[in-house]
Amino acid sequence: MKAIDRGENLTILADKTQTLRSQAQEFKKQRTQIQRKMWYQNMKIKLVVLGILLFLVLIIWLSVCHGFDCTN
Predict the structure, then answer these.
(1) By the 8 A CB rule, do 68 and 62 touch?
(2) Which residue, 57, 53, 52, 54, is CA-closest to 65?
(3) Using CA atoms, how far apart are residues 51 and 61, in angstroms rounded to an integer?
(4) Is the pLDDT reported for residue 72 higher than 70?
(5) CB half-sphere exposure, 18, CA atoms < 13 A
(6) pLDDT digits over 26-44, tens only?
(7) How far apart are the first and last CA of the chain?
(8) Is the pLDDT of residue 3 over 70?
(9) Cα separation of 26 and 19, whole Å?
(10) Among residues 57, 45, 56, 7, which one has the least CA distance to residue 37?
(11) Are 28 and 34 within 8 A, CB to CB?
């Protein structure tokens, strides 16, 4: 009788192990997706800030030089 109980317990334990392994793989997949999404979002913010800075530098350049020719 104890051997049957142990066999059932081992089956339950194996099922729980497989479930936990599947959940871990799904967690890893979701983590990777979120990391990529956050990286792209971070890059977009950096590119927008860079664009604004370049635009401000261009405006300052044009106002100081009175156009694109800064030789005078």
Answers:
(1) yes
(2) 57
(3) 15
(4) no
(5) 6
(6) 999 999 999 999 999 999 9
(7) 102
(8) no
(9) 11
(10) 45
(11) no
- Alpha carbon distances (Å) from 30 to 5, 34, 42: 37, 6, 18
The H or E element spanning position 69 is none
Give me the residue label for tokens 């194996």.
14
AA letter at 51:
G
Rounded to whole angstroms, the Cα distance separating 4 from 28 reads: 36
Residues in the chain: 72
Q: What is the pTM of this model?
A: 0.60
Separation in Å, CA 16 to CA 9, 12, 42, 54, 63: 10, 6, 38, 57, 70
Alpha helix (H) residue ranges in the chain:
2-65
